[in-house]
Amino acid sequence: MKNLTTTLLLFLWVVSSYSQDYFPVNDGVKTKNTTVTVFTNATIHTDAKNIVKNGMIAIQNNKILQVGSKFALPENSVIIDLKGKHIYPSFIDLYTHFGVTLPKSKDNGNRNQEPQYDASREGYYWNDHIRPETNVLTSFNYDATKAKTYLDQGFGVLQTHFADGIARGTGMLIALSATKKNNERLLDDTSAQFFSFEKSKLSKQAYPTSLMGAMALLRQMYLDADWYAKGMADSKDLSLEALQKNNSLPQIFEAGSRINSLRADKIGDQFNIQYTLLGGGDEYERINEVKNTNATYIIPINFPEPYDATDPYLTSLLSLGDMRYWNQAPSNPGILAKNKVPFSITTYKLKKIASFKDQIQKAISNGLQPTDALAALTTVPAKLLGKENELGILKKDAYANFLITDGELFSDKTVIYENWVLGKKHVVNPMNIVDLTGNYTLTVGTTKYNVALTGKPNAPKAAVKLDTLSIKNTVSYKDNWLTLVLADTDTTSTNFTRLTARVSSDGVFENTKAIQPTGSISKFSMVKNQETAKESKKKEEASKSIERSFTSPITYPNIAFGNTRLPQQQTLLIKNATVWTNETDRILEATDVLVKDGKIAAIGKNLKANNAVSIDGTGKHLTAGIIDEHSHIAAAAINEAGHNSSAEVTIEDVVQPDDIDIYRNLAGGVTSIQILHGSANPIGGRSAIIKLKWGETAENMIYDATPKFIKFALGENVKQSNWGSRSRFPQSRMGVEQLYMDYFSRAKNYDAKKKAGLPYRKDLEMETLAEILNGERFISCHSYVQSEINMLMKVAEKFDFRINTFTHILEGYKVADKMAKHGVGGSTFSDWWAYKFEVNDAIPYNAAIMHNEGVTVAINSDDAEMSRRLNQEAAKSVKYGGISEEDAWKFVTLNPAKLLHIDNRVGSIKVGKDADLVLWTEHPLSVYAKAEKTIIEGAVYFDLEQDKKQRAAIATEKNRLAALMIAEKNKGLKTQVAKKKEKQRLECETIETIH
User: Fold this and answer.
1) Which of 126, 487, 844, 981 has its CA 20 to 30 A from that of 335?
2) How many angstroms from the chain centroid is the CA of residue 18?
3) Other C-beta atoms lying within 10 Å of the C-beta of residue 628
4) Rounded CA gap, 335 and 425, in Å?
């Protein structure tokens, strides 16, 4: 029924546009209007680069007939002389939901309601958030009031769409003409296909709950579409049919931030799709990455307001990153243009469309060239839509969409008079109106006032003063007649003085009349104060945004403690240190270590090397970098909780390289981590193993040829003991076992079909589980209770593979012998216990007992705070169980490297291994030890002395930015409240929700 409705609407819109010739006319004559309107003597900007001076432009109906410096007037011409005026193409906005009422969330904020796990629609895709069949025509209503706000800012054409869901369907192109009908306004009923990472509010279906889930869903959607297109599906799917049909359209993806744009582009590259990316305004932070996407961007200009920095305490709560964003964001369009990244500009996310011009001017004052601004509003969006000969340009046969102004379009004082769309005039400001803005001396009888007129030419605002006393007033200005009503100086009085005058074409007040409260009538004078050229220039400079007096430098990442340049590999010679090798050499006193080309080149005494940076290690300890086997820092999402298995998702998709916890971990001597999926489901997502290369991109942090890992989980979390949910299988520990049996049985069958060369639907979830069966992917399993630990080992043995690691494993001491026999490692806490029911039997001797039974043991954090002091966590095993200091140190270095299958590269100090090293001020297991230098592949990523300097520099920069914000407030600009943004700490049980 829905498709029938859509088809009917399309038919009515399109047919009506072609039915005018044979439809009867009862409200006038049927003869067509053959009038040609010719504009002469104008400066015509045919596009962003080309200008015709003293030119002519002829239009008829909704198209341009001719543009040039001079041509013969067509018959039936009406001439409009635009001497001294400019003509520009009207603007195009590619990203709006104009005329569309978007749905509200169905959950009504009720978090206690049962989740919906299955789709609610039949005949469509298995996930409700994939809705490519959506056509915005079915929900569109032309909004004349909203259209006027766009027209007043210079827009002639908007692309609108139903902004709901992950695959959102098609948009349409609408011309903003108040006098036209919808069938005439509609320039394209399927102009582009839209996507996002946000779920549909029309459905409560739980999956996906995370960003990585949305990414996995998009990948599976494209794979399923390919399978469907080959005719291999068993049933009809209207969503996949629509997706295929729309593939030839421009593909626009609402990413909303620089890093999400990169994530979307990664998906596009995988399926040979070049998305146009709606950015977030922060592209300048990593401009080379942005440029390398080869995408066209749609850029919002909702630049942040300055914070109210007058309160020192509140200002201290602001992060340097937020303060920098205010300072740097207006330079984003200019930086994109300078780096030749194609982009269009959108009003999307502006609180008020009326602020558009101010924001554009702010971008121009921050480096955007006016020609690039014009291109971003005309030719670039037109080209993206494949309409470069019809829109955004003034040429023969293009749509008659243009602006008439009194000067250069983006100049501060330029007035837009008219916005012609499809050959119809929209008056923004009357062309014959005299602009009164300025300062005046008003004389009424013997009383002299100072009057400042500001605002729009046809809607001025007045500030009136009698000496220093502000006088309340009302002002109106219409048809070049000014009316000004002044309140009495006595605020308790209801007396008013009414002034009225006609304004001549040169701005002189004529026919003045002043009506006093007594009723007496007299004349008045109002004379404009003339500024000298010097005063005018000074005022113009003062009007420029004050933040340009200082722009914060961009760092990597662009927050506190970021690097002005990325750390570089160096040849390092660390002299005379106590070296903890974690090898058969054990601990070497007064020993040198040479680092070259990112590797450990030599270990010995009295080493020498040309051009090496010498580091004195006397009295200090040099160790391999700490490796955290179980971490949740540096990720934008941790749990995909929408299904009982999420093997299709990967943390590698959501590595967050600008997480400050990376730097904090470096300060604690951590150099590598495994970012694990959480424990929301029995089969979780795939891991990311990264090096903490602070300032690098996410891709450059991930280990090359990285070992493949996945998170499994047992216990209370996966059976949802504490979630209040009773609708998702499994709800018991028995059910968890059966779920594993079912999934691995299906994966085995899937893999067999694939290996046999039979046709198969590629399933990302089954692909991952098949890798486990084939020994290509390793399991790290969240675990507590001995019975479940035994169960999972037995399941694995039934399918002829082994569990790699039990993480947490707080009852490992009960089954350590069985673990050793199975060959599984244990990554545990040092001394956490009794924080929930299934942990009641935990003991601090767990690590020692497992170690003594031959299990490879690691101490992990599962916590952003604990990971900063894993050296101290390792030391606890010396106390609890009498582990030697060297073995205890291996619990956070070599042993986690073995568990992660990266011990050929890291975990010990050995010639040929990666130079991931930490120089400690004290014995590394001491509570007094600090990481003096943390080195990754021969580059210093943390330096204790440099850290002290950075802290001082951060304080200086914040004070400087605060002063600029205060100055902005003193200028009368609107500010936002300074408040602290709490950073969410992600852990195993964190459930994120995408909206």
Assistant:
1) 981
2) 43
3) 30
4) 36
Coil, strand or helix: which one is 953? helix
**Strands (E) located in 126-250:** 155-160, 167-175, 186-196
Cα gap 678→661, rounded to integer Å:
18
Nearest to 377 by CA among 349, 410, 418, 423: 410
Contact residues for 257 (Cβ-Cβ < 8 A; gap 6+): 279, 280, 282
**Torsion angle (degrees, nearest 10) of CA 792, 798, 802, 803:** -10
Contact between 587 and 903 (Cβ < 8 Å): no
Q: 268-298 b/e with 16+ CB inside 10 Å = b?
A: beeeebebbbbbbbbbbbbbebbeebebbbb
Is residue 712 within 8 Å of 782, Cβ to Cβ? yes
Identify any residues that bridge with 466 across adjacent strands, giving them in sequence order.
Answer: 469
First to last CA, the chain: 28
19 pLDDT exceeds 50?
Answer: no
| Residue 515 structure tokens | 């009506």
Q: What is the DSSP string of 805-825?
A: EEEE-TTGGGSHHHHHHHT-E
Decide if 809 contacts 715 (C-beta within 8 A).
no
Please classify residue 358 by burial: count the beta carbons closer than 10 Å to its beta carbon, then call 0-12 exposed, 13-18 middle and 19+ buried. middle
Are the CB atoms for 920 and 898 separated by under 8 Å? no
Where is 675: in which H helix or E strand? strand 670-675
Lowest-confidence region among 25-29, 653-657, 762-766? 25-29
Please report which helix (H) or strand (E) contains residue 510, including its range.
strand 509-515
Over residues 553-576, the pLDDT tens digits come to 999 999 999 999 999 999 999 999
> 811, 829 in Cβ contact below 8 A?
no
pLDDT tens string 165-198 = 999 999 999 999 988 888 899 999 999 999 999 9
- pTM here? 0.92
DSSP 911: T
pLDDT band at 4 (very low <50, low <70, confident <90, very high): very low
The closest of 154, 66, 148 to 400, measured between CA atoms, is 66
Between residues 729 and 544, the one the model is more confident about:
729
* Residue 161: strand, helix, or coil: coil
Helices (H) and strands (E) in the chain, counts: 25, 43
Q: Which residues pair with 230 in a beta bridge?
A: none
Q: Which pLDDT tens digit goes with each residue over 864-875?
A: 999 999 999 999
Dihedral (C-alpha) 281, 286, 291, 292: value to the nearest 10 degrees?
A: -130
Q: Which residues are bridge partners to 483 per DSSP? A: 476, 500
- What is the average per-residue pLDDT within 380-400? 98
Buried-exposed string 109-126: b where 16+ CB fall within 10 A, e elsewhere: eeeeeebbbebebeebbb
CA 593, chain centre distance (Å)? 43
Residue type, 585: D
CB count within 10 Å of CB 239 equals 26
- 255-286 pLDDT per residue, tens: 999 999 999 999 999 999 999 999 999 999 99
Instruction: Please write the tens of the pLDDT for every residue from 95-132.
Output: 999 999 999 886 644 555 678 889 999 999 999 999 99
Give pLDDT, residue 979. 86
Q: Specify the residue for token string 């990472």.
A: 197
Nearest to residue 485, comparing CAs of 454, 458, 506, 464?
464
If you average pLDDT over residues 492-498, what whole number do you get? 89
What is the C-alpha separation between 644 and 284, in angstroms, rounded? 40
Would you place residue 15 in the very low, low, confident or very high pLDDT band (cuts 50, 70, 90)?
very low
Q: What are the beta bridge partners of residue 343? A: 297
**CA 592, CA 616: separation in Å to the nearest integer?**
9
CA distance linking residue 671 with residue 918, whole number of Å: 9
Tokens 């009862």 — which residue?
26
